[in-house]
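Thanks for the sequence, V.! I ran SDR family NAD(P)-dependent oxidoreductase right away. Repeating your input here for the record:
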Amino acid sequence: MSKIVFITGATSGFGRAAARRFAADGWSLVLTGRRMERLQELQDDLGRQVPVHIAALDVRDAEAVQQVVAELPEGFRQVHALINNAGLALAPQAAQQVDLADWHTMIDTNIKGLVNVTHALLPTLIASGRGASIVNLGSVAGQWPYPGSHVYGASKAFVQQFSYNLRCDLQGTGVRVTDIAPGMAETEFTLVRTKGDQAASDRLYRGTEPLSAEDIAEQIFYVASLPEHININRLEVMPTRQAWSPFAVDRD
Ligand SMILES: NC(=O)c1ccc[n+]([C@@H]2O[C@H](COP(=O)([O-])OP(=O)(O)OC[C@H]3O[C@@H](n4cnc5c(N)ncnc54)[C@H](OP(=O)(O)O)[C@@H]3O)[C@@H](O)[C@H]2O)c1
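Predicted structure:
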């Protein structure tokens, strides 16, 4: 029996690359996201390799999350790894210029959405027991402040602390929890953040070597397939060409 991985945000970036990585190792896939046509493409492609179940899902909708989990077909129910990847940043401008609605969208997706899916799948993961995994996609922004990060960074700090706290409560169940915190990675992330500004996205990644979706998918797969007595608590990954800046000082 192949193991089953449940991935949120499988339609793009890390989630889509993770679907391919787990499929390459023979895992069965439950792939979710809002864009059904992309899920369908993945099922058509990866379904030739491994069993694939797809479900259109907005993680902000707690009832829909419960329904998707309750209606998992035979052969996809005993989830062994949950990849809580769905998320987004919005509004790269300063906090004082941001629409409140953008803050709410980040909180609803990155915090409430992640909590919705975790809550719905915890009983299944605990039933899977030793070696089961929850892999949460945090960010370097959850640890390190930078201008324009405001609620996005704060939401990823939540992901880090929630991951640690989950570990305390799951002690003895065999379920592992990891916060993967990537730095700059080229996906659709900046296109979403800038509300479709492809030139801004290209500018951000130009002339350097960001992480790729496949780089992070490899890390996600790594932590979920380690020997079952090993738990990576937090894995922070940056491109070699990215580092921190000095403190900003306001001068006369
Ligand atoms: N790229 C980076 O530099 C970076 C760095 C650190 C952390 N991260 C984090 O990594 C995760 C994946 O980001 P990515 O870089 O792969 O970005 P991406 O290419 O934009 O992918 C984001 C995924 O999240 C899904 N998603 C967004 N809102 C959703 C919702 N309400 N319900 C369900 N799915 C939703 C999207 O699917 P649909 O639109 O089809 O729903 C998409 O599949 C995010 O949590 C992000 O915060 C990214």
